[in-house]
């Protein structure tokens, strides 16, 4: 856990004034999920992804999603080699440990769906053959607000593959002052030292999966799930798979706090980032505000 704490502190020197978002990103990775960052350009989404890979010693690839991108540009393609008389696989950028899908909603739905199998099964099917992806495998996708021109909204099936959705937002005044007066973030990133090996991260992921969920905490999670399914609040409530996502993310958050069991505070901390992108408000009110009310009214057993 010491190496993880060092990674967290180091990343906070790169992304200033956003400790909560950084901790959520770590919890998402430890829970073996994938992260969607939705925000306007220029607030540090790409820098966070690159920095996270650097401090954890993970291989990193970035794909800029555009309207003319093809699935083969992500997965790779088999090319016939005349000398050997065989097809040789030229692996795409998805064969990495941290994949940044930058501005994912600028690509067509066909390209967006090319990530579905990789994110869910951690494998890629190319020309009828299935290829395992490296471990750990973590997708960070950035998304521009839907009202911007040239974007394709992510379908519900794609959104559900992301464990969390977060926003960075503008930095606090003092943090932005430090950005203006400090060195370029890319120069700072180049000096980052990895604080752990990929094998250590895999061990942490296994440890997080073993965090205990008491019967009382399971009842609390069930109460939250059932509250989202009441008529009139959301178009549809959270699914059983969303419930599993809540439990996994809470386990990751608890492990970051150095605990081997869940507390209600762990569930509350991750509830909105895990649930909001899976719901649509029935009243037109912001989903986040409806979830805040729900958290306030659902009793803790």
From TrEMBL:
Entries under Pfam families matching the protein: AAA_3, AAA_lid_2
All residue ranges annotated as the AAA+ ATPase domain in the record: 31-172
Superkingdom, natural source: Bacteria
Name of the protein in its database record: AAA family ATPase
Organism: Chromobacterium indicum
């Amino acid at each position: 856990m010491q190496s993880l704490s060092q990674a967290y502190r180091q990343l906070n020197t790169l992304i200033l004034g956003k400790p909560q978002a950084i901790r959520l990103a770590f919890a998402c990775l430890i829970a073996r999920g994938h992260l969607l960052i939705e925000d306007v350009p220029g607030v540090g989404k790409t820098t966070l992804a690159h920095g996270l890979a650097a401090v954890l010693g993970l291989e990193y690839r970035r794909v800029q999603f555009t309207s003319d991108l093809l699935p083969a540009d992500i997965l790779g393609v088999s090319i016939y080699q005349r000398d050997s008389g065989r097809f040789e696989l030229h692996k795409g950028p998805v064969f990495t440990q941290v994949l940044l899908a930058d501005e994912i909603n600028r690509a067509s739905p066909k390209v967006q769906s090319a990530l579905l199998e990789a994110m869910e099964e951690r494998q890629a099917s190319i020309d009828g053959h299935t290829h395992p992806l490296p471990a750990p495998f973590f997708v960070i996708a950035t998304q521009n607000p839907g009202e911007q021109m040239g974007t394709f909204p992510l379908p519900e099936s794609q959104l559900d593959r992301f464990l969390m959705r977060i926003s960075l937002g503008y930095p606090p005044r003092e943090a932005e002052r430090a950005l203006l007066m400090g060195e370029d973030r890319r120069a700072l990133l180049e000096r980052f030292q990895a604080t752990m090996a990929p094998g250590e991260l895999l061990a942490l992921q296994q440890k997080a999966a073993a965090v205990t969920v008491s019967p009382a905490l399971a009842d609390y999670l069930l109460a939250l799930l059932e509250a989202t399914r009441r008529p009139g609040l959301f178009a549809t409530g959270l699914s059983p798979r969303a419930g599993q996502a809540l439990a996994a993310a809470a386990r990751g958050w608890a492990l970051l706090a150095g605990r081997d069991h869940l507390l209600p505070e762990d569930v509350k901390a991750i509830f909105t980032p895990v649930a909001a992108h899976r719901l649509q408000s029935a009243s037109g009110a912001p989903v986040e505000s409806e979830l805040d009310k729900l958290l306030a009214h659902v009793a803790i057993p």
